[in-house]
Specification:
The structure is a single chain. Helix content is 64%, strand content 0%. It is an all-alpha fold. The chain has a single domain, classed as Glycolipid transfer protein (Glycolipid transfer protein, GLTP). The longest helix has 28 residues. The N and C termini lie far apart (38 Å). The relative contact order is 0.15. The structure holds ligand 1PZ. The site of ligand 1PZ has 17 residues, from helix 2, helix 3, helix 5, helix 6 and helix 7.
Length: 215
């Protein structure tokens, strides 16, 4: 059978989970946010083991959030909004330096949130690229514009080397598993506004609560 992460990736599935992320009043459901990331990790794993150090960290963070979601205070973690309120009101977040709450939901989600911006930039480049477009270049440009500023030199270096191992655009589209290139492009066009909205809502919430620099 294998674990969920081993199964075949399909872009449609990720699209579906990101669709489920937003509630009627535009709150972000943690359960579906996490499920969206699970799907993305499945994709990353199907690209090969050189990306293992990246997926390992993401799996770790997902695990932290799932544990909170299934824990005794799980009902407080239904949405990102309720999580933030609950953790702040109960002093469960290290706000300025690492202390007794190194694995708060708030700081853990912030790491994924920053990575979501990279994803948005990367997928937009992929969507608008030509057949000869280099995925490694699109990936590193997106990374340099976003996530890299939060990473120390060694991580940036390792990430840069991993990007060079990315397959070309045709193989990349193949792994996405939604049919011919035009269909992948169309699916990306559907997925991007959803990812972007989830990102924006989280970004506004974190900015409003001054949570953008959580250690
Ligand atoms: C398709 C190619 C995939 C490229 C993915 C681009 C992101 C590169 C990130 C490389 C960093 C991984 C090593 C771990 C770094 C952690 O230190 C940081 C901060 O966490 P802390 O140390 O503060 O607990 N972790 C992150 O920044 C989260 C990174 C998550 C990356 C998820 C990528 C998922 C890719 C999906 C592919 C479609």
């Amino acid at each position: 059978a294998g674990t969920e992460e081993d199964q075949k990736f399909c872009l449609q599935e990720v699209l579906d989970t990101f669709k489920l992320c937003l509630s009627e009043n535009k709150e972000v459901y943690l359960e579906h946010y996490v499920a969206g990331w699970r799907g993305l990790i499945k994709f990353l794993n199907s690209l090969g083991s050189v990306f293992g150090f990246i997926s390992k960290d993401a799996v770790n963070k997902i695990h932290i959030l799932v544990t909170l979601l299934n824990g005794e205070s799980g009902s407080q973690y239904v949405t990102v909004q309720s999580m933030v309120t609950y953790e702040l009101e109960n002093d469960l977040v290290d706000l300025t330096k690492r202390g007794s709450h190194p694995e708060s939901g708030c700081r853990t989600l912030l790491r994924l949130h920053r990575a979501l911006r990279w994803l948005e930039l990367f997928l937009e480049r992929l969507r608008t690229s030509s057949e000869e477009g280099k995925t490694s270049v699109m990936c590193s440009e997106a990374y340099n514009e976003s996530l890299s500023q939060f990473h120390p030199w060694v991580v940036r270096k390792a990430a840069g080397m991993a990007f060079c191992m990315l397959p070309g655009r045709p193989a990349f589209f193949e792994v996405m598993n939604v049919g011919p290139a035009e269909q992948v492009v169309a699916k990306l066009g559907e997925a991007l506004p959803l990812i972007s909205e989830v990102y924006q809502i989280t970004e506004e919430l974190y900015t409003r609560q001054s949570l953008m620099d959580l250690p």
